[in-house]
Design a protein that fits this description.
ten-stranded antiparallel sheet, two-stranded antiparallel sheet
């Protein structure tokens, strides 16, 4: 029977190298992590819970504000309601700003808490490494002896068997310890990734926070403009509203004629197959933990568009919500159809992105655009923020889909800038 179970010098060298690599990894991580504040982990966890409770209260207030806005959508638009809506929009922005601030504080506390975990794992790595080095040294000393020598140097056969078994146990323990060390390394990597992800989220929220602060000022200025232009008189406000609607109906009539003509001449066989789920939602829906609510589907008839079929897909969401690219592509247009905060037409602030499969997506009624023409973008990248610009009855994202080769950009008075016109498709067929 062979009790040798020998480890060659090559094997020992490989094991030693494996331990060295893991050691380097742990040193690298150690230099990456920062020391947490002089707080216990229990204190950090309590502070994290406090922040979570604060966020829950703010989310409840945001939901109340959303429901109040929803309840007034079917009411006749009056000067008082317009001002109230703008005030509610400012309130939403202020609550979201507070939410962003608290979330960033919570993320910083979570990073410190993870750093505690990192140090615990690093200590375990060091201890395990020391155990492996000790086992390797013991094996290296004993593997110089043959099985015969092991038996001869012992007084009895039983003692020889016990020593051979002891060597076998050392090897088994070594294999086990190396496995545990590898598990620790993987756990360490996951914790480092968590820290990196949370730091990235902090930076994104800082940018969104800065945008929302500027949007509060925009909404307050618009409220002043509404009151100044209407001279605080309901009759004047209604006259302005009627004129604006007539102008928008004329714009819509012209666009519908052009798009219907393009569609009648279009060969639909060149389109990608529907149901491919090529695009992702540009605003996270409420059912997925976001703020978006689908308010109108493609092809639906609405009084807002003079009884004409809707040429896009609307997602209601508060002003200042992040708008994400639906797929990889290139920005081909960044425009604005508004003449002022009161003379708002068609798509308002918009972005058009062309995708590799010859489809193009339109993101309209934005409060702010964050990309420029010619810029390459990736799915999920922030390209702008939702708003209420253009011809709109409330804050939302208009998501349009076009066959890219048919898109042209035309002036359609009295709208400012250029209006994208082309063969429109049902976005939901590719979501």
């Amino acid at each position: 029977m062979d009790f040798a179970f020998k480890f060659s010098k090559k094997t020992i060298g490989a094991l030693a190298l494996f331990g060295l690599v893991l050691f380097c990894v742990s040193v690298g991580v150690l230099s990456f992590t920062k020391k947490a504040d002089a707080q216990s982990k229990e204190e950090l966890e309590q502070q994290i819970k406090t922040k979570s409770d604060e966020l829950e209260r703010i989310n409840k207030q945001l939901e109340d504000t959303r429901q109040n806005l929803e309840s007034t959508k079917t009411e006749r638009l009056t000067l008082q309601r317009e001002v109230a809506n703008l005030q509610a929009s400012v309130r939403q922005l202020e609550l979201n700003i507070k939410s962003d601030e608290i979330t960033n504080q919570k993320l910083s506390l979570e990073i410190n808490s993870i750093n505690y975990d990192l140090r615990d794992i690093e200590i375990s790595v060091e201890r395990k490494k020391e155990t492996i080095v000790s086992l390797l040294q013991e094996l290296q000393q004993n593997e110089q002896k043959s099985l015969l020598v092991t038996f001869l140097k012992n007084v009895t056969l039983a003692e020889g068997v016990l020593e051979a078994q002891s060597l076998s146990n050392i090897r088994s323990q070594l294999v086990s310890d190396i496995g545990e060390l590898n598990d620790l390394k993987q756990s360490l990597g996951r914790k480092v990734q968590q820290v990196s992800t949370k730091k990235q989220e902090v930076e994104v929220r800082k940018k969104t926070l800065a945008v929302r602060k500027t949007l509060v000022e925009d909404q307050q200025e618009e409220q002043k403009a509404v009151l100044a232009q209407a001279k605080n008189k309901e009759s004047l406000f209604q006259q302005q509203l009627s004129n604006l609607q007539k102008q928008q109906d004329a714009i819509e009539d012209e666009i519908v004629k052009m798009e219907d003509k393009l569609k009648s001449e279009f060969d639909s066989s060149v389109l990608p197959a529907p149901g491919t789920k090529y695009f992702s939602y540009s605003v996270l829906l409420r059912k997925d933990g976001g703020t978006g609510t689908i308010t109108q589907h493609y092809g639906e008839v609405s009084r807002l568009y003079g009884g004409k079929p809707h040429n896009g897909f609307d997602i209601g969401t508060p002003v200042g919500t992040q708008v994400l690219a639906a797929a990889d592509g290139e920005v081909v247009a960044v425009g604005n159809n508004d003449k002022s905060s009161r003379l708002k037409y068609q798509y308002g602030k918009y972005i058009v992105v062309k995708h590799p499969n010859n489809l193009a997506t339109l993101y309209a009624h934005l409060s702010q655009q964050s990309v420029s023409v010619g810029q390459k973008i990736t799915r999920g990248q922030i390209i702008g923020y939702s708003g209420n610009t253009g011809y709109s009855t409330g804050a939302h994202l208009h998501f349009g889909l076009y066959w890219a080769p048919t898109i042209t950009y035309k002036p359609v008075a009295p709208a400012a800038g250029l209006v994208p016109i082309g063969v429109t498709l049902n976005p939901e067929s590719y979501l």
